[in-house]
Amino acid sequence: MDIAFIDPRKVKIRGQLPSGALHEADIQVCSPVSLLAMKGISIHDRIKGADKDAVDIDYILRRYPDGLTALGRVFKMDAYSSDGLVREGLQGVAKAFETLESIGPVSVASPDRYPNSEERAIVQQGAFLRAQRFLRLLNS
Predict the structure, then answer these.
(1) Pick from 104, 95, 111, 94: which is nearest to 125 by CA?
(2) Residue 129 falls within a domain, yes or no?
(3) Does any domain span residue 60?
(4) In this model, does residue 39 exceed pLDDT 70?
């Protein structure tokens, strides 16, 4: 997707090759904004695999280094706010996390990840509220 090339980042990875040799390389990855937008498009366009998309969306919202407010500010930057694919991705996120019972929160708190129903309810509510807070930040 073209969106992956908006503001790409270089990341250094280090590891051991199958041969046993140690190696390091710089790789290019998409920005958190691009990834979130791609996941929003994906979750809207497919049912199979939507669980993974929902978990990834929630992960980005939970783990963005400077928090949701900072992520919202980044989304409001001209490079992103004027991009049609970014807007489409945000619409997908909004639809997937529209209610507590929508595919996003339900998928994040799936029974195979959270067999305890009380814990599942807490995780589901957290995912829903986090997404709603993020979406409100974009509209403020």
Answers:
(1) 104
(2) yes
(3) yes
(4) yes
Count of domains for the chain: 1
Domain of residue 64: give its range: 31-139
Alpha-carbon gap, residue 25 to 98, rounded angstroms: 40
Give a yes or no: residue 11 inside a domain: no
Interacting residues of 125 by C-beta distance below 8 A, sequence separation 6+: 100, 105
pLDDT in tens, 88-114: 999 999 999 999 999 999 999 999 999
The three-state DSSP-derived secondary structure of 17-46 is: CCCCCEEEEEEEECCHHHHHHHHHHHHHHC
Which amino acid appears at position 29 of this protein? Answer: V
| pLDDT score for 49 | 61
